[in-house]
Design brief:
Layout: H1 2-25, E1 39-41, H2 44-51, E2 62-65, E3 69-70, E4 97-106, E5 109-111, E6 116-118, E7 121-125, E8 128-146, E9 149-153, E10 156-158, E11 161-174, E12 177-181, E13 184-186, E14 189-202, E15 205-208, E16 213-215, E17 218-232, E18 235-238, E19 241-243, E20 246-247, E21 251-258, E22 261-264, E23 267-269, E24 272-274, H3 275-278, E25 287-289, H4 291-294, H5 298-301, E26 313-314, E27 322-323, E28 334-343, E29 346-367, E30 376-377, E31 384-390, E32 394-399, E33 408-418, E34 423-425, E35 429-433, E36 446-447, E37 459-464, E38 469-477, E39 482-491, E40 496-501, E41 514-521, E42 526-533
């Protein structure tokens, strides 16, 4: 009986050891690893299996990723050293093809400050990497360190992106790749990150070596620090070619630093960097532009040959260029206009955004000086709904019904609040409240163009007369049918009057999208203009 128990106990120990060994090596993905039947990586365990079978990957090996992968658990792996790179050295190389199919790997952690060739792919030779997006990486190595790869040789990389933090304790650090050699990179980007090392540091790559071509890529809001030499917003040291690329991140480097390129012997063509955000007025390569110029399409098309904004690049609202085939969806709430009018004894606020990301609602604040902390939250019980995530322009109107004092100046702030509770307060505007009996002579007479136009759901219509008159403002559809009379009163000369149409008809029903006309009818003249409602 005791012998039987000993045997059963030994078998249990062996089974547990086998199970632990299997978990440590990960779970094999489905597929055969061929071009016709590639391995299908769907989980973090599948990705672990890929990294623990490095010696198996030839140039004829094919892997596809079939789902987003949360890799945040890697922070506790291997005694807190994190994930083991796929391809760890020049003698243990990953030669295969990896296609992310547009999926993400988020929260990947590697902490190996005494190890060379560190990244999701440590040492990548031959093959390709495509359509893969790494989000919020936290990667540390000694030399040749990058988010996507530490070292790439004879590799084709297309439509990939990286955000997060990369640190090399020695040299060659880039948020995308630490060191490129004889490779081609097309339509990739890095965003919202930090990169630091002693030498050869870039927001995209540490060094772009000879016979390496980087085309149609960018590094947006990636801050770099090179404590010694060769720091650049895009690349620390260039020996290959870079074409149609840009960077916007801040650059801090001891020597040989630049807004776009730190130093080198290569060439950059039609490349740009933001002089305002980088803190750098010079660069070994590229052309420096202000933020306003970097967010203007003509900056990139005025050179010859200009950037391709038909099939490769696009400008969404007031933002930097982004790639069509590999679009960065994280566009901020981008405020393009914000102003206030004092209309019929009431302050009215108008603002327009060009893009919004996860915008839940707006708060409005009013103060009598530039101290925001002392401002009054005037819509605490009635927030203005945001438009979520959109790449289209959005117009807002808010009527301040709180009492105001005549002959006083007020400041207004608006704050966008995201669905996850994060917020941004925008620069304030001022509004002077005059004496009610103080006439303000208008700059022009007649009917003004509505604002905003196009609009949704409301728009403001302003007019002024050179002589007293009875006035009516009427909305018509394109067939001439009367929709609603929105103003009917006597108006005195030299007064600018503004009325707001809320997009409703005479029965209070919201009208559909389309073209509408508005008429200003006076005692002796009729004015008419056209406007567009877009939902």
């Amino acid at each position: 009986m005791k012998k039987t128990n000993l045997i059963l106990g030994f078998m249990l120990i062996m089974l547990l050891a086998m199970s632990t060994s299997l978990m440590a090596d990960g779970t094999p993905p489905s597929g055969l690893g061929t071009e016709v039947s590639p391995y299908q990586v769907a989980t973090l365990d599948n990705l672990l299996w890929i990294s623990t079978n490095n010696s198996s990957w030839s140039a004829s090996s094919y892997i596809i990723q079939t789902a987003d992968i949360d890799a945040s658990a890697t922070s506790d792996w291997n005694g807190d050293a994190g994930f083991s790179p796929i391809g760890t050295s020049s003698s243990n190389i990953f030669r295969g093809h990896y296609n992310g199919q547009g999926n993400t790997i988020s929260g990947l952690t590697i902490d190996r400050g005494s190890t060379e060739y560190v990244g999701l792919f440590g040492y990548k030779y031959l093959g390709s990497i495509s359509n893969l997006h790494l989000r919020n990486v936290d990667i540390t190595g000694k030399k040749y360190v990058g988010g996507l790869a530490g070292f790439c040789n004879n590799t084709s990389i297309t439509a990939c992106s990286v955000t997060g933090s990369v640190t090399a304790t020695s040299q060659y650090a880039g948020l995308f790749v630490g060191f490129f050699d004889s490779s081609t990179i097309n339509q990739c980007y890095t965003r919202d990150g930090t990169v630091s090392s002693i030498d050869y540091v870039g927001g995209f790559c540490g060094q772009n070596d000879s016979s390496t071509d980087i085309v149609n890529c960018y590094a947006d809001n990636v801050s770099i620090t090179a404590s010694n030499n060769y720091g650049g917003g895009f690349v620390g040291y260039i020996e290959g070619t870079i074409t149609n690329c840009y960077s916007t991140g801040s650059v801090n480097s001891g020597s040989y630093n630049g807004g776009f390129v730190g130093r080198g012997n290569g060439t950059s063509t039609n490349c740009f960097w933001d002089t305002d955000t980088s803190g750098q007025a010079t660069s070994y390569g590229g052309t420096g532009k202000t933020t306003e110029e970097m967010k203007t399409q003509s900056t990139f098309t005025s050179t010859s040959p200009g950037w391709n904004f038909t099939t490769i690049w696009e400008m969404i609202g007031y933002n930097y260029p982004r790639l069509k085939v590999n679009p960065d969806q994280a566009l901020p709430v981008n405020l393009s206009s914000f102003y206030a009018l004092y209309i019929s004894g009431t302050p009215s606020l108008y603002w327009t955004t060009q893009t919004e990301e996860n915008n839940a609602y707006w708060n409005v604040y009013r103060g009598t000086n530039d101290n925001f902390e002392a401002a009054y939250h005037i819509n605490a019980n009635d927030p203005v709904p945001g438009n979520g995530s959109t790449n289209n322009a959005s117009d807002y109107i808010y009527i301040d019904t709180a009492p105001v004092v005549q002959n006083a100046t007020y400041l207004y702030w608006i704050e966008d609040v995201s669905t996850d509770g994060e917020s941004e307060v925008h620069e304030p505007i001022t509004l002077y409240v005059p004496f009610e009996d103080t006439p303000i002579i208008p700059a022009t007479y007649g009917l003004q163009q509505n604002y905003p136009n196009p609009f949704n759901p409301s728009t403001a219509i302003s007019f002024a007369l050179s002589e007293d008159s009875d006035v009516e403002v009427i909305i018509y559809n394109v067939k001439g049918g009367k929709i609603k009379s929105i103003f009917n009163d006597h108006v005195y000369a030299d007064q600018t009057r503004t009325v707001v149409w809320d997009g409703n008809d005479a029965n209070g029903k919201q009208v559909s999208s389309g073209v509408y006309f508005y008429k200003l009818i006076t005692d002796n003249k009729v004015y008419q203009k056209k406007m567009l409602l877009v939902k």
